[in-house]
Amino acid sequence: MMPMLSVLNMPLVQRLRHWASGIKQDSLMLWFACRHAETPWLVRFLCLFIVAYALSPIDLIPDFIPVLGYLDDLLLLPLLIKLSVAFLPLSVISECRQQAEAWQTAQNRKPRSLLGASMILLIWSLLIYGSVKLMI
To answer: Is 14 exposed, middle or buried (0-12, 13-18, 19+ CB in 10 A)?
Structure first.
């Protein structure tokens, strides 16, 4: 991680890229935290939900919907990631960040979550089924 002063001296676009990079790394770190023995069970479920959604190739609110489509990416997801990181023990955070960095270096690809995609498809299916049922 970069020292805070050097981040503050960056131009806005570069600061936003740095922030987005940290969010991506933390979402991958949460994936390792889900499997860590010292992670409390409730936090484990929260991390699993967030990782499944963050790494899903399908958004809950599609990006083509003006304004709302980007709210989950810009507000909801980062807040949920920061919340879950706040509940993790420091030892778990440091160990899982190292594992995430090693995984990114070795894999050199963007992680995906089929569980997350399935979860989003299930939610959309239930919403469509419920609205059709209400119309009938």
So the answer is: exposed
Q: For 83-134, what is each residue's pLDDT tens digit?
A: 999 999 999 999 999 998 898 888 877 677 777 778 778 888 888 888 888 8
d(CA 61, CA 129) in angstroms, rounded, equals 17
Q: Which residues of 43-67 are buried (b: 16+ CB within 10 A; e: fewer)?
A: bbebbbbbbbbbbbeebbeeeeeee
Sign of the dihedral through C-alpha 89, 73, 57, 1: negative
Q: Helix H segments across the chain?
A: 4-8, 12-34, 41-54, 68-71, 77-87, 90-107, 114-135
pTM to 2 decimals? 0.67
Residue carrying structure tokens 């955070």: 93
Task: Report which secondary-structure segment, H or E, holds 130.
Answer: helix 114-135
Provide the strand spans (E) within 7-115.
none
3-state helix, strand, coil in the chain (%, to 5): 75, 0, 25
